[in-house]
Amino acid sequence: MSIKDNHLVIMAGGIGSRFWPMSTPQHPKQFVDVLGCGRTLLQLTVDRFKGICPTENVWIVTSASYFDIVREQLPELPVSNILLEPCRRNTAPCIAYVSWRIKKLNPKANIVVSPSDHIVMNVAEFGRVISSSLGFASETDAIITLGMKPTRPETGYGYIQANLGTSSARNVELFPVDSFREKPDLETAKKYIAQNNFFWNSGIFVWNVSTIVNAFRVYEPSIASIFEGMMDVMGTDKEQQTINEKFPECPNISVDYAILEKADEIFVFPADFGWSDLGTWGSLRENSQRDEFGNALIGPRIDVYETQNCMIHTVGEKRVVVQGLDGYIVAEENGTLLICKLSEEQRIKQFSEE
Amino acid sequence: MSIKDNHLVIMAGGIGSRFWPMSTPQHPKQFVDVLGCGRTLLQLTVDRFKGICPTENVWIVTSASYFDIVREQLPELPVSNILLEPCRRNTAPCIAYVSWRIKKLNPKANIVVSPSDHIVMNVAEFGRVISSSLGFASETDAIITLGMKPTRPETGYGYIQANLGTSSARNVELFPVDSFREKPDLETAKKYIAQNNFFWNSGIFVWNVSTIVNAFRVYEPSIASIFEGMMDVMGTDKEQQTINEKFPECPNISVDYAILEKADEIFVFPADFGWSDLGTWGSLRENSQRDEFGNALIGPRIDVYETQNCMIHTVGEKRVVVQGLDGYIVAEENGTLLICKLSEEQRIKQFSEE
């Protein structure tokens, strides 16, 4: 495996509605310094592939409306590596587009597909898992999913059921997938984690470009034929115009549903590198450094008095003083202030829309 | 009495520390649209004297650092009517300065002195009380204080004890003052309001310019001599420079202590025109329109859910969503967000300083 063949595809088209008001459709959470560390989630995602994928092999697939933000946040990327979807069609068309694009450039490419808005605490272990998976993908026709060892009966994630009895002969950390399971209810989730062969579906995938292109041809030919028919214009001046015309014809479908649940030779790499999809304010609190009273305080100047178990987040030069709160989200961003009990955070999307 | 002789003096040098973060030393509350009505407290103060004092007779005494704000908020005022104190010396030097200034212009002037940051609900009754007091002051040497009929045993105000047995023969609404009382403790305040002859000291005074100038000469000659010695430069190019040199020599003393507590012929006009000094966030809540759950919501777009007894205040285009709070101040202004129990609001000054 040559590092020059390693490509990274970052899907950065989400709108992060559960993180309102920090995340807005105009400026969703992948473009925000959520952790208050000076780097946005998108930048952190690129950062953790340093040494694994060369910069010229990093691809961002996003909405046309986020082009300027991506350019600003990743100035080191070739501008032609930013692929713009004219409309939202879920992950399958997004991955197909970039796969055919990469295939034209390098038919031997190995690809990691990653969300843009997750966090990883143990970047070294993450790098080891990714490199190992890329090595496997370069030598096989495997579709590899990264399965996160679950720590709680989470109902917000899909699960991957592994056949732990028969690891791959080439890589003893990779196991065949028995089934993919949709987000379960609490009872089912508890059953899953009582066993040891269920893993959270992280949305991180590794494969060879031929493998995924062939899988589309077999399992989702309507999408495959759209991009097959665009091979001539890929990488030319006509690419964007043709994409704008043809991309909307794709069905709205996830790669999980279109490919993973149907294909053979699907493997899961059970891993543990401090992953979170940062889906909610509560998960940000859990994944942030907290003070002795359980407060996660992210912002340049936050003072708390008689306050505990709160998630307080602000960007910019805002000063915040909070007295006497327990178990609240306080978020001040994008011209909006939100104060809401953490236990009610599932209502935030509704608040943002009213 | 001619309306041309009526002068209004507005003391606008306060820093409003209890209303932080809406009120800051750089932009204190008299310059803020506290009520969310489109007019600042200073503008509302000027507004309610329309028809009583001509615009050219309105004087603002304030700190030099607020000159630009006053100009912007009261563009109709002659710029020479904005008097600038080079330092804070409490109310006696402030009132002395403007009194000598007015005396040079019009020795027959009648003067109302008013704070800049109070509110009045019943402006018609206010106008009647002020006009009646001005008429009395124009014909006598009386020093008139407006006494507010107390509605609760407030410990944050000074009280005026009236001799209700003997009203003035010229004006049956005016009564001699028996004594001024400093801010009482709760027990004492309860005793005061159990009687009917104790009134809150509103800080609104009415007198003839000769009366107050003579009172300074008699009771506070050190201040009188400073301004007496400046009569030549008053209203000339040299006024500000001389004030900058001489004003700091004045003792730091309130007009209550320097004059009112010593002088004879002090009268109180017991009045009831929906007055509040808006001293605290709690008093703003009490003086604002509230929803059926007791929330005072001042701002362009505030949505509340399961929230009661809160004072929520923001200026500008900020959107605010609050869920699940009871009895809190939420104020977002001047780059600062404050969330604090109303019951703890006496700590706000401390929060602002830390």
Task: Provide a quick synopsis of the model.
The structure is a homodimer of 354-residue chains. In chain A, 28% of the residues lie in helices and 25% in strands.
Task: Describe, in plain words, how this protein is organized in 3D.
Two copies of one chain form a homodimer. Chain A is an alpha/beta fold and 354 residues long. Chain A is 28% helix and 25% strand. The first copy, chain A, is built from eleven helices and 17 strands. Chain A has a five-stranded mixed beta barrel with strand order 6-9-7-8-10. Chain A has a four-stranded mixed sheet with strand order 12-14-16-17. In chain A, strands 5-11 form a two-stranded antiparallel ribbon. In chain A, helix 3 crosses helix 6. The longest helix of chain A is centred in the middle third of the chain and has 17 residues, at 123-139. The first copy, chain A, is globular. At the A-B interface, strand 15, strand 16 and strand 17 of A face strand 15, strand 16 and strand 17 of B.
